[in-house]
Amino acid sequence: MSSIPLLNQLRAEHRPAILAHLLRLEMEDRTQRFGQPVATEIVERYVEQLDFSRDAHFGILHRDQDGSTQLIGHTHLGIDARGLCGEIGVSVERPFQRRGLATRMLTRAIVHARNVGVREIVMYFLPYNTSLMELARSLGMSLSLGSGEGMARLANLSASPVSMASEWLDLCNEVGERTVGELAQVAGSTSEQMRRLLAGQLT
Ligand SMILES: CC(C)(COP(=O)(O)OP(=O)(O)OC[C@H]1O[C@@H](n2cnc3c(N)ncnc32)[C@H](O)[C@@H]1OP(=O)(O)O)[C@@H](O)C(=O)NCCC(=O)NCCS
Hints:
binds coenzyme A; about 200 residues; 7 strands; Aminopeptidase; GNAT family N-acetyltransferase
């Protein structure tokens, strides 16, 4: 375990790395991630069906001393068809837990959600998932507990010049992972969003 793990927005080509990460999770963590015990085939189907256009995925890449890179954390921000509500699923592998990695991914996912117009984010968890409850509280989410599952919620979200600048800076830090064309495209859409925001069109 050497350098600082990198946080990146993931693309469809990261599917195999996401699958490998989810299959490396301890069974207990896999159960907590999916809200119930799930067989390997279900995880495979979940990864095959992931959407990378409307939804957003963030991952923590850990580079080992031998230079090999592994995805050791994943956050899926699912966005509903109206683009107003987001649902987050998050996981970090055991040897890397309690280092603030889920906090980093969730903070990034929330900023992204705000910037694309999502107004509310929810995270479902099993009622005994105390780590997730603490984590959600630390992010300012409100918690409610039902009989079978709990829900963490962040409401009244909106974009701001700060949230846009923050995401742009994060994307620039990924420059090694992105082509110049992709960065130019992101720059174009960010400045358009910023222009609309300043003109009062994003509320
Ligand atoms: C929940 C999970 C994602 C947290 O990942 P993580 O990278 O360890 O979280 P962080 O290091 O960012 O923790 C942030 C805060 O959350 C709380 N927290 C995290 N793990 C905790 C634990 N085991 N016990 C108590 N509090 C915990 C703490 O307040 C922590 O801050 P601190 O370390 O400064 O005290 C990880 O435990 C996991 O993958 N669990 C299995 C999957 C899961 O439950 N997913 C949630 C449902 S989608």
